[in-house]
Specification:
Elements: H1 16-27, H2 32-40, H3 59-63, H4 71-77, H5 81-84, H6 90-102, H7 107-116, E1 125-128, H8 130-140, H9 147-150, E2 165-170, H10 181-184, H11 194-197, H12 200-216, H13 222-236, H14 248-259, H15 261-267, H16 291-302, H17 305-310, E3 323-324, E4 337-346, E5 349-356, E6 362-365, H18 372-375, E7 380-383, H19 385-398, H20 403-410, H21 414-423, H22 447-461, H23 467-473, H24 477-484, H25 486-490, H26 500-523, H27 532-539, H28 543-547, H29 554-563, H30 567-585, H31 591-598, H32 602-623
Length: 638
């Protein structure tokens, strides 16, 4: 490979392939193969250059570092990179940006990009606008292949309103050949498709949005972000549930009414099911959407691509920003500074992710009705942010603080300090002293007296002292007593479960659970089984916190055992209600009635089949006027 003697200056909206065609024509070469090897040093398919900025690593070799033509300019102004970026995942987008900036060769990335911009979606021939070709000849003395004319859905020139024509040059021809537009666009017949003429304004709108994506497509930040915004705007239109679950039939009906069935069939005439791609609007499979699909969806939701980009969804599950920061050592804690990263919907939950722009801490919320003051008590932190880690490193490596002192400065637990320090490869215990007692020459105080005195002094300040707290406050003391006089220490220490704090905590949580249970009894669904999860949900508590501590919370355990229904208790209660209604109608209770009203799952019947059959038989005896004392059932005859 060597520097080229010359390289044509790119024209406005000229595609990358067309620049090579003009180089071929001006070089005087008569061999396509020789010119390909001169440019690329090997055999190279040329068709993808119509749309994509391939082999950008060679630009500096061709033109030199001092050339005004740069990789960035060719990628943005002379390829459809920004247009196709709407179908890119974050990984593809970042890889392409890195390739453009550094010029590093990456054939694997190029292959994935070409697969993303599927060849099956390309037109059969290179296309052109006759008026644009005429203007090019008058202005430059030659014409060239324009980017806009090659893109799907662009059937009319946005500038002149002229129908886009097919040239005689097929994409199969240009795989290994240079076909300059000046040679190909001579004396071609001019015809306008009557069917397309009916939808001229629709096609012009698509051309306008296509031009906007060519200039601004990178602002949309890839298919995942676009899909998330689709979900929010669908919700505004009432096309999804409150949890973001879509109504597919409702979406397809509204979409067809907006664009018109005739236009959509004309646009996708090669597909029998022309709305098959609407199933890919979901975020997880959004990379399967083509840019043309995005344009149609953006027009449907907001009228144009530009308005879609500028649109701010009116429905904000967590209110309008800025949102508060959750970093306790940040100046914006509890006030503002955080921006919304994303809002997604999963398993009935609305998951919102937020990140402070000052400290970088990123957190997630899942309850839209929970106030921030309640949320900060149990924060879900996804990333502690650069500022928090800098403070951690400073505390350990610069200020030489011990573990507890570091936790105090960072306003978190020692466990959090240990985990986060391990992430960045530092030892939070490196400043810890194994024993703070040192015998000095002539000292009359031995270790026994020293440690007893220190423990006694600490107990006066902190009567409820655990072994771990002792080790933090008086390093070495626990090890000495464990070896020499553990019984003395054991009489003075408490385990964490015995602390008075837990009795207060249990009392507070029990009040909340009892209040929630009373609320359920008054206003809850009478047919629903009363479970720990339901009571905790109404009380605003975490089910895992309550269930995980039942073994050491006797009062809450006793309440749960009394209030929560077992599966058989719930089935019996429901069956009795159904049997009472059947009794008024003078009919027997049947399994079909149970299945119809309760929607029992097959595994429930398999597990409790004997119990269910026996209960139905017993209730039917009561309906017929017989009495049964089994399970405490007592029905009077009418």
């Amino acid at each position: 490979m060597r520097r080229l003697k010359f390289f044509p200056a790119p024209y406005p909206d000229e595609c990358y392939y067309s620049i090579f065609c003009r180089y071929f024509a001006r070089s005087g070469s008569t061999s396509n193969k020789r010119t390909i090897f001169e440019l690329f040093g090997e055999a190279q398919s040329l068709a993808a250059f119509v749309f994509l900025p391939r082999r950008l690593e060679l630009v500096d070799i061709w033109l030199g570092a001092d050339s005004p033509v740069k990789r960035e300019k060719l990628a943005l102004d002379n390829s459809c990179y920004a247009y196709f970026s709407t179908a890119f995942t974050r990984q593809l987008y970042e890889g392409m940006e890195r390739k453009i900036k550094t010029g590093e060769p990456d054939r694997s990335l190029e292959r994935r990009i070409i697969q993303k911009c599927r060849r099956s979606h390309w037109p059969e021939r290179l296309r052109y606008c006759p008026d644009c070709a005429r203007e090019d000849m008058e202005r430059y003395g030659e014409t060239y292949w324009h980017r806009m004319s090659q893109l799907p859905g662009v059937e009319y020139c946005l500038k002149h309103g002229t129908p886009i024509r097919d040239s005689e040059v097929t994409f199969r021809q240009i795989t290994m050949a240079f076909c300059p537009a000046s040679h190909a666009l001579q004396c071609l017949p001019l015809q306008e498709d009557a069917e397309k003429k009916k939808y001229r304004q629709r096609y012009l709108a698509i051309a306008g949005d296509t031009e906007w994506l060519l200039r601004n497509g990178l602002k949309l930040e890839g298919c995942r972000n676009i899909a998330r915004k689709y979900k929010e705007l669908f919700m505004e239109k009432g096309l999804t549930t409150a949890q973001g679950v879509r109504y597919p039939d409702r979406i397809k009906t509204a979409f067809t009414e907006y664009h018109g069935e005739g236009f959509l069939k004309q646009l996708f005439q090669d597909k029998e099911n022309y709305l098959y791609w609407l199933d890919f609007v979901f975020e997880s499979v959004s990379e399967h959407l083509r840019p043309l699909h995005h344009i149609l969806l953006m027009e449907f939701l907001k009228g144009s691509s530009e308005k879609f980009y500028e649109a701010i969804p009116e429905i904000e599950p967590y209110g309008n920003g800025p949102w508060p920061c959750v970093n306790k050592i940040c100046l914006h804690y509890g006030k503002d500074g955080a921006k919304k990263v994303s809002v997604s919907y999963f398993n009935g939950l609305t998951l919102g992710q937020f990140q402070c722009e000052t400290c970088g801490m990123k957190y997630q919320r899942s309850n839209t009705e929970q106030v921030f003051e309640e949320y900060v008590e149990h924060v879900t932190i996804l990333n502690y942010g650069h500022y928090w880690y800098e403070m951690l490193r400073e505390c350990v490596e610069v200020k030489k603080l011990r573990l507890t002192e570091t936790a105090t400065v960072l306003k978190c637990t020692t466990t959090t300090v240990k985990k986060r320090a391990d992430e960045i490869g530092i030892n939070p215990n490196q400043n810890r002293k194994s024993c703070i007692y040192r015998e000095k020459d002539g000292s009359k105080t031995d270790r026994s007296q020293y440690f007893r005195r220190r423990v006694t002094e600490l107990l006066e300040v902190q009567p409820e002292l655990t072994a771990s707290e002792l080790e933090e406050q008086i390093p070495g003391a626990y090890a000495w007593f464990n070896k020499n006089d553990f019984q003395w220490l054991k009489q003075r220490l408490v385990v964490d479960q015995e602390k008075h704090y837990w009795a207060e905590w249990e009392e507070e949580q029990l009040k909340a659970l009892i209040s929630a249970y009373e609320t359920i009894q008054k206003t809850g669904d009478p047919d629903r089984r009363i479970t720990v999860g339901w009571i905790c949900s109404v009380a605003g508590l975490r089910e895992s916190e309550i269930k995980g501590r039942l073994h050491r919370l006797p009062n809450i355990r006793a309440f749960v055992e009394e209030a929560v229904e077992g599966k058989e208790e719930w089935l019996e209660r429901r069956f009795k209600k159904i049997a009472a209604r059947k009794k008024l109608a003078g009919k027997d209770l049947k399994m079909a009635d149970i299945r119809r009203e309760m929607s029992l799952k097959p595994n429930t019947y398999q597990k409790y089949g004997t119990f269910i059959d026996g209960l139905i038989t017993e209730l039917n005896c009561c309906i017929q006027g017989k009495k049964s004392d089994k399970n405490g059932l007592n029905y009077q005859q009418e």
